[in-house]
């Protein structure tokens, strides 16, 4: 990503509705499917400026990894010292089978070879360990944000589940997110951010404080409903997968 993307994330991640809603949903998913216990090792790949580290820290001990040194500087400016530079774009530099949970939050779309990134995720996970992944959904929602952030793709649930299965994972939960605000996202794509621009910029539509807070509420309902169902459409896809423990079969 461009350096200004890290700076923009740093400015928005603790107050913009999308970041807040996303963290709320992920926290509830982890509370249900990944109960905390002493010594759980969590790896946040593509930690950026550290926006989700406080949430992940409720579920275990977190190591934030990124390929960009500036991202780690932002993390340390917030007091997050347990961060490190990745050894290579597809190499975390971590020992095999050392992690209980790997988080890839809106990261996988930045890898040209996303399956190579999934293979590395599988390598560092303990047998039975979990991967929590979020990615932008549906190619028809491609917008200026995707261009500015240098995304290679957007995903469907079927595509992501097939890729995870090829790399030794079984699906625990998968669903689209932001179902209730999807009509607004789609309209915004049609009449605004979806237009192709010669010099795309990474920018979000910011809202007045009260509206910004109100936009988080539907995601709280989604987090509850995910206990019983999965949503058929949305602007983000979330998948919780488990590394197969072949010794159990």
Automatic annotation (TrEMBL):
Residues 43-133 form the Methyltransferase type domain. It comes from the Bacteria. The keyword Endoplasmic reticulum does not apply. It holds the Pfam family Methyltransf_11. The keyword Membrane applies. The chain crosses the membrane at residues 176-194. Gene3D superfamilies: Vaccinia Virus protein VP39 (3.40.50.150). GO terms for molecular function: S-adenosylmethionine-dependent methyltransferase activity. CDD domains: AdoMet_MTases. Keywords: Membrane, Transmembrane, Transmembrane helix. This is Methyltransferase type 11 domain-containing protein. It comes from Candidatus Doudnabacteria bacterium RIFCSPHIGHO2_01_FULL_46_14.
């Amino acid at each position: 990503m461009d350096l200004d993307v890290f700076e923009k994330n740093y400015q928005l991640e603790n107050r913009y509705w999308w970041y807040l809603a996303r963290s709320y949903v992920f926290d509830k998913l982890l509370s249900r499917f990944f109960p905390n216990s002493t010594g759980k090792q969590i790896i946040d790949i593509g930690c950026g400026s550290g926006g989700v580290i406080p949430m992940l820290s409720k579920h275990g001990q977190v190591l934030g990894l990124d390929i960009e040194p500036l991202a780690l500087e932002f993390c340390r400016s917030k007091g997050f010292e347990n961060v490190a530079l990745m050894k290579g774009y597809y190499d975390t530099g971590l020992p095999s089978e050392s992690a209980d949970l790997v988080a890839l939050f809106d990261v996988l779309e930045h890898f040209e070879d996303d399956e190579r990134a999934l293979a590395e995720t599988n390598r560092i996970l303990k047998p039975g360990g979990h991967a929590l992944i979020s990615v932008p959904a549906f190619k028809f929602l491609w917008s200026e944000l995707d261009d500015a952030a240098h995304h290679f793709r957007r995903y469907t649930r079927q595509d992501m589940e097939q890729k995870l299965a090829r790399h030794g994972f079984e699906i625990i939960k998968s669903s689209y997110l932001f179902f209730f605000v999807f009509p607004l996202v789609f309209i915004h794509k049609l009449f605004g951010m979806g237009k192709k621009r010669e010099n795309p910029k990474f920018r979000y539509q910011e809202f007045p404080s009260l509206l910004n807070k109100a936009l988080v509420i539907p995601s709280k309902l989604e987090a509850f409903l995910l206990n019983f169902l999965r949503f058929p459409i949305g602007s983000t896809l979330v998948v919780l997968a488990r590394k197969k423990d072949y010794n159990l079969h």
